[in-house]
Amino acid sequence: MPSSPDFQHRDLRNHSFVAQPLIGADFRGADLRGCDFRRAILTQARFEGCRLGQTRRQRGVWLLAMVGAGGLVANALVRLIFAAIGQTPGEKAWNYVLVLYGFLALASLFMVPALLSRQRRLQRGGEVGAGAAIGALTGFFYGGYLTANNSLIAILTAIGVGVLGGLFCLLNQTGTRSLLLLTTGTITTYAFSFFIGARALALLVTAHWWAGSAWGIVALGALGLTFQGLKQIPARLGQAPGTLFRRAVLTGAQFAANNLSQADFRGAIDPPPTLTNHSNP
């Protein structure tokens, strides 16, 4: 019989073992940060004393993705909002202003359970809704921008990107999804706060005290969500599992004295017995 693979005390950071047959493999003392064991066959494998968690490369990729997605969304929202400020009812673009108000409000509303709910199903529903609304806003802007403000294409792009955004948040199970939504959602709640705050200020200046105060309270609520998002970004970045065992076969595998919270075991067969629910944030 062939001998079991021996990886003892080796530096295997960022190595991919996806779907590999590793029955009885010995990883004792190895550095497995950033390793991908998804769908691997790890029956009777030994992981005592190995290092699990993130690597600098993973964090760099996540940060780059967050900056890229955040920049795209921020650019779209800034341009849409400043184009809408000053528009009044009766003008040709007023309907688009109302749609902008509506989708910013919808995205911010969905971010409430996404940021604050302790119930996983409610949190996921908020993430899907927020992803769809943010995608629709972003798609609307870039669809119009790239086609010289063709309204039909902008609307179709908004629908398409909105659906993709919702599906991404629904089907993607990685920490990247959580970090991207948290980044873009925080930017969106701040944009809503600014937009509504400008409206509230305009009403207060013209002595519409009740309406101005009501919109001001909404703006402060959205600003509070923004601060909550900013608070959660570094925490979730630090908690994102770096070693992946999703859907791996772990029957008889030994993980004594490992930091299991740094790994993702969702969907794995026979995960470590002391494991309750370690998954992506």
Shape: elongated
- Outline the biggest β-sheet: 2 strands, parallel
Distance between the termini: 42 Å
Radius of gyration (Å): 23 Å
Characterize the quaternary organization of these chains: single chain
Q: Beta-strand percentage?
A: under 5%
Element string (H = helix, E = strand): HHHHHHEE
What average pLDDT do the residues reach?
Answer: 90
- The helix content, as a percent range, equals 55-70%
Order of strands in the sheet with the most strands? 1-2
By secondary-structure content and strand pairing, the structural class works out as: mainly alpha
**Tally the helices: what do you get?**
6
- What is the strand tally? 2
What ranges have pLDDT less than 50 throughout 5 or more consecutive residues? 276-281
Structure description:
- It is a single chain.
- The two termini are 42 Å apart.
- The radius of gyration is 23 Å and the shape is elongated.
- It has a two-stranded parallel sheet with strand order 1-2.
- Residues 276-281 have low confidence and may be disordered.
- By secondary structure, the chain is mostly helical.
- The chain is built from 6 helices and 2 strands.
Write the SSE topology.
Layout: H1 56-84, H2 94-116, H3 120-145, H4 151-171, H5 175-205, H6 209-239, E1 243-244, E2 263-264
Parallel strand pairs: 1-2
Helix pairs in contact: 1-3, 1-5, 2-3, 2-5, 2-6, 3-4, 3-5, 5-6
